[in-house]
Design brief:
Layout lengths: L5 E8 L7 H17 L4 E3 L18 H12 L7 H13 L2 E9 L7 E8 L5 E6 L22 E3 L2 E7 L2 H4 L1 H8 L4 E6 L17 H13 L2 E6 L1 E2 L16 E2 L3 E3 L5 E3 L6 E8 H10 L39
Parallel strand pairs: 1-2, 2-3, 7-8, 8-9
Antiparallel strand pairs: 1-14, 3-4, 4-5, 6-7, 9-12, 10-11, 12-13
């Protein structure tokens, strides 16, 4: 369901097929069709959904870890590719916009992967991509650092959409870039590891997924689809199960522009749905537009460098050229 005033938000919470790009793509396309049949306007998947979260990086390093890393790289997604073509076609047939986390392989070196959010329009085309700027902790041994090329909002008929991965919401500045561009519907993609309620232990895992998502909704005055991933030990291939030291339980929520939860937290594989309205967004921004009237650009400004990360520059005659020098 979509018009200029109302829309439906969907959080697709499901487990990918680890180390199997084709099977995961087929599952993603099926879930996109299901979300479309439920009337969704825009649907979000969790962080690094297609390719999966690199759980093996948190285990003790051993030969099996290197095997997992090689297989992980081999199953990564290039943009564009037949994989992204399938996702685009699924979005077109379902008539919805899709924001999906993918493990993106560098098409130049084929040796680096990024934690990327891929934005796909209902027209069946890629709107853009955003690579996670700074992987967190053990993630740095697997994912490369991203850039600000895709750190932007995308205009859709019902509003402006955006997205960030996990602790990019903790970094603060990437979120401000999107708020300053007037984001109205934001996908906060999480691995789904952090619980909705902190466990009773001397060192509790505080629910940053929920807290930071709610904070972003309130600060940016936008809806947030806070979608977490699912990966249980039983979802992990037998050959790598000894590397699985924790599980991802989802805990997805949908949050309104005041920071209030309107759907979830969800458990298990499901598609969480909530209705949104442009009126609610405008009402919240009228009170606090941190990229507009609630800012002080005379005192504080943010500079964004959108230059692609270029590691090699070529000059002169191209290799293998038939041209002769004078």
């Amino acid at each position: 369901m979509t018009d200029k005033e109302h829309f439906k938000l969907a959080a697709i919470q499901a487990a990918p097929v680890m180390f199997d790009r084709d099977a995961s793509t087929e599952k993603a396309c099926r879930l996109i069709r299901e979300a479309g049949a439920m009337g969704a306007t825009v649907a979000g998947f969790g962080e690094a959904w297609l390719g999966g979260y690199p759980f093996f990086a948190f285990a003790e390093m051993r030969p099996l870890t290197w095997q997992a890393m090689a297989e992980y790289l081999a199953n990564a997604v290039e943009i564009p590719s037949p994989t992204t073509n399938q996702l685009c076609e699924a979005a077109r047939l379902a008539g919805i916009d899709v924001v999906i986390g993918v493990v993106e392989r560098d098409a130049v070196t084929a040796g680096t992967v990024y934690c990327t959010l891929l934005f796909i329009g209902r027209e069946g085309r890629i709107l853009g991509r955003h690579r996670k700027i700074k992987p967190t902790f053990h993630e740095r041994s697997v994912w490369g650092e991203g850039d600000a090329v895709g750190l932007r909002t995308f205009h859709r008929p019902y509003g402006r959409i955006s997205g960030l991965n996990c602790w990019e919401h903790n970094t603060m500045l990437p979120g401000y870039v999107l708020a300053a561009q007037g984001t109205q519907i934001h996908v906060a993609a999480w691995p789904g590891r952090e619980p909705a309620i902190a466990p009773a232990s001397p060192t509790p895992l505080w629910p940053r997924q929920l807290l930071l998502s709610r904070a972003f909704a309130s600060q940016a005055a936008c809806y947030v689809i806070a979608v977490g991933g699912v990966r249980l030990h039983s979802d992990t291939p037998d050959r790598y199960r000894e590397l699985s030291t924790f599980e991802h339980t989802g805990d997805s929520t949908i949050i309104d522009p005041r920071g209030e939860i309107i759907a979830g937290p969800a458990q298990g594989e499901t598609i969480l749905i909530a209705e949104g309205s442009s009126q609610a967004v405008l009402a919240a921004k009228a009170v606090s537009d941190i990229g507009g009237h609630y800012s002080r650009p005379d005192l504080l400004r943010l500079i964004v460098d959108r230059s692609p990360q270029t590691r090699m520059a070529e000059r002169g005659i191209a290799p293998n050229s038939d041209m002769q020098t004078a």
